[in-house]
Amino acid sequence: MQHTIETKILKKNNELIDVDLSLSVLKNHKGMVIGSIGVINDITYQKWIKVALEESEKKFKQLYENAPIPYHTLSPNGEIASVNDKWCKILKYRKEEVIGKSIFDFVIKSERKSAKDSFEKKILKKKPYTGGHERTYVTKDGEERIFIIHDYFSFDEDKNVMSIHTTMEDITQRQQVWDKMMKSEEKYRVLAETSADGVLTTDVLGRLTYINPSLEKILGRRKSNILATLFRDYLSESSVYLFQQVFLDIRKKEKKMENIGLDIIHNGGYEIPVEANISPLKKDGNFIGIECTIRDISERKNIERELKQSEKLRTEFMNIAAHELKSPVTPIKGYLELIESDKDADEKIKNWARVGLRNAERLMRLINDILDVSRLDTDTMRFNMEKCDLTEIFDDATEDIEPDIETKNLKFIRKIPENLSKIVCDKYRLSQVLKNLLGNAIKFTDYGSITLMAEEKEKHLFIYIKDTGIGISSDETKKIFTKFYQAYTGEDRKNEGTGLGLFICKEIVKKHNGEIWAESKVGKGSKFTIKLPI
Ligand code: ADP
């Protein structure tokens, strides 16, 4: 016979430990008891695990019982295995009145059949979670309460449903607030409910107090699920920040804000670009929230994307065409230059060569402009940024234009202070900008002077190119920086050009974190300013 008892023994170091003590009787061959054998097993660890398990179960039970939301556990046939205190409190039953009963006895009659059907389907589907649907239960005293329910399924080893744990979110009050508001604002409701745009209102904290069916569609969420939640929870990360700013601004200034671009996160996880118009909502003169219309602009964005794509194709085509044109023009120019400088050539032929050369150069300029535009459009123009001495750049630019100034008999004024700070720039590109602006100044000026000035001011370098030429009308001074735009395109316009030069200048200056603009008076002359950070 063996006896096992659980006891404690004292170790040599005075430590008391838990043990299992098994005692067996020892007999001789005649069956007489001659002693006993004891086996001692240290069970400290098992004991500790047992206590820990009991502790964790207790904690879980406590959590379950004290959870602030109603909670029930069901058997696979819908019988209630357990409910927590909150469940009892809201539905006004005592635990012993509900355990063992079918959960469907507590569902409102009109939903009972569909609730049962969907429950059975869910059991068969063997999914670990289903949720987010609305269900109305009836309390002991007959009051209807609306919940959003979430079901979590646990399975046995054969993957059969063992039990169903359900959390319930009581939205009865939300629904009532909504119904009350709808009743009191009937007229508004009809308008908002039928609007093709999304409409929402929030309270002072930005929590949704109303959303219309169009917004439900944009969000992919039912109003009952999201009323009283924060609108910003349905915005992309970058939009949250913007929306918060706008919200605070509207609250402060109490003024409407329009065309705010936001990205809404659809329930399916993808983003929808929208445009929002937001106004403050006031009651008795106090700010009580916002009212917002939301327009889905995905379609517009798609068209924009397609346009960009076709623009890209056009740029690529321009790029290829320009390269193809450049190859034959280079040798043509070379041969014409040879003829022009040939001592033995006839003067008449040399003149023809000069005309040819001038036109070949013009063609080359056009090709280079087109190539630059396509590089800028595709962001492939390379910039060699380094600290540069500006005097060098000014010298390079003016050297090129001197012959043209002489030909047109203009005066050239250069006012560059000594010791200008060095700036970080691509000297080839900056010189290209200056040549372009000076070239234009000469091209559009028949009498008077061209001035190149520079000054340092407010941590910036200002470069001015002034002329006393034909000038530009004030509504055109902005447009001339756009691609292909040429001001004054009347019949008598005699200046050649492509309308690309200023666009290229503006883009190059932009790449230097600078700005460029024009001021002008028709008939008096123009002043172009470049502002670059030092
Ligand atoms: P392009 O000179 O090849 O036509 P630009 O882009 O350099 O192209 O200039 C665009 C237009 O701006 C010019 O066609 C001209 O109408 C106007 N413009 C530019 N610079 C001046 C200037 N200094 N005086 C008068 N008009 C100017």
Helix-and-strand structural type? alpha+beta
Q: Which architecture of the largest domain per CATH?
A: 2-Layer Sandwich
Radius of gyration, taken over Cα atoms and rounded to an integer in Å: 42 Å
- What is the overall silhouette? elongated
Bin the strand percentage.
25-35%
3D structure, described in words:
- The protein is an alpha+beta fold and 534 residues long.
- It folds into five domains: 2-50, Complement Module, domain 1 (Ribbon), CATH 2.10.70; 67-170, 2-Layer Sandwich (Beta-Lactamase); 196-296, PAS domain (Beta-Lactamase, 2-Layer Sandwich); 302-377; 386-533, 2-Layer Sandwich (Heat Shock Protein 90).
- 42% of the residues lie in helices and 29% in strands.
- It contains 14 helices and 20 strands.
- The strands form five sheets. A five-stranded antiparallel beta sheet has the order 5-4-8-7-6, sandwiched between helices.
- A hairpin with a 5-residue loop joins strand 2 and strand 3 (33-42).
- The radius of gyration is 42 Å and the shape is elongated.
